[in-house]
Amino acid sequence: MKCLECQAELTPRQNKFCSKSCAAKTNNRGRRRHGKPATNCLVCGKKTASARRKFCSSTCEGISRRKNRSIEEQRKLNRQYFMKYFAKKKSQTPADADQEIIKEIYKNCPDNMEVDHIIPISLGGPHHQNNLQYLTSDENKRKGNRVAYSVYPRQF
């Protein structure tokens, strides 16, 4: 006769398992020991990580938010978000800013680079030609909306 877990040969004294370890592996498989059982995801039906969660992942959570809106409603919201950003950008543009130079900076942006505000608009920086710089997309993502930024970490 063989062990149900590892298929090792059993001695006459052993019934199903060769050791306590093999017995525990088999008997504990699929058993929840603490708390309420996990629920099913409201979107895809997979098991969630805990009883409190409604979704199995952030992807399913995002899908559920979009499901409740029609395409027209989503477009309207996107337009509102854009107009809010545009209005802030416009209010942050000083009178002495040269719009033609700013357009040229955006137009002449090299490949694999992005135009970045040195002092971010979200932190009160002006939308002015002196506040613009070119950064690679990775550097721009790392910088975020911070003012002081160094590509290299500080050495102490």
Describe this entry's structure for a reader.
This protein has 156 residues and is mainly α. It has three domains: 1-31, no CATH class; 32-67, no CATH class; 95-143, no CATH class. The protein is 35% helix and 6% strand. The protein has five helices and two strands. The chain has helices spanning 20-27, 58-67, 71-91, 99-107, 137-143, and strands at 113-117, 132-136. Strands 1-2 form a two-stranded antiparallel ribbon. The radius of gyration is 29 Å and the shape is elongated.
Please give the order of strands in the largest beta sheet: 1-2
Question: Residue-averaged pLDDT, rounded?
Answer: 82
β-strand amount: 5-15%
Count of domains: 3
Taking the sheet with the most strands, its summary is:
2 strands, antiparallel
| Helix-residue proportion | 25-40%
Distance between the termini: 65 Å
Globally, the shape reads: elongated
